[in-house]
Design a protein that fits this description.
3-stranded mixed β-sheet; Rhopdopsin 7-helix transmembrane proteins; 3 strands; 319 residues; mainly alpha; 13 helices; 75% helix
Amino acid sequence: MFQNLKASNISKIQVSEFILMGFPGIHRWQNWLSLPLALLYLLALSANILILIIIYQEPTLHQPMYHFLGILAVVDMGLATTIMPKILAILWFNAKAISLPECFLQMYAIHCFVGMESGIFVSMAIDRYVAICRPLRYPSIITDSFVVKATVFMALRNTISTIPVPVLAVQRHYCSQNQIEHCLCSNLGVTSLSCDDRTINSIYQLFLAWTFMGSDLGLIILSYALILHSVLKLNSAEAASKALSTCTSHLILILFFYTVVIVISITHSAAMSVPIIPVLLNVLHNVIPPALNPMVYALKNKELRQGLYKVLKVHIKSN
């Protein structure tokens, strides 16, 4: 009877903070990861800020495609900044504690930014579809108004649909166990510590993944299938190559973004046997795309390279 009463009292205890343990299985030497992660974070910030400066200062880049690229740069910086300062604090200063409100806020922000990035990729795919398959109607369809409407829609979609993620997580009861084998507050990582049933959390996580990320990927695949079908009908191989070259940078980013999402989903089931893999992929997925996106576009896009040259030339002359 005494043991039952003691167990009942323990179950009523609500933890006041979580402890982010870092990378599971490599706690002793995980500090060595701080340097490459810090460099990736600095690269993500500097490269995306440079992209924004180039787009702002170069009049020829004031087009819908580059507006979407600028919005993507802002989203990328937001995503990286949501997780990297805390990860570096863990690795450098052993600041593993995070309050429940901060943890749930980070959980919400991560879902919002990842969903927003997926939505921007859809908008960019639609932009390329209209440019290649409906070139005469492009100026009347893909306007500045279209960019604003698409961005507002994606922002509202993700900010509203993501609200239940932290709300459902808050409703779980966290007793005694508060150590999270992760570097960030992931939904499943946090709710796995709850003492009550978390089925609804897992169901909503799957709902978000399949409904929004799945539909985004479906629209992107459809857009590029129509683009490929249209390009294959061109009589000139040179024209076909030129049309596809405008899509290569976008396709590289999409393939990396969604491939890692799928791999994370698959490896999550293997978290017990190789726990570091899904954690490391989750962290890299939130910091590598922000660092990779500007470089891929800068290398593949002639207009951006010219804009970069002009910005650097002006900066050198001013000094």
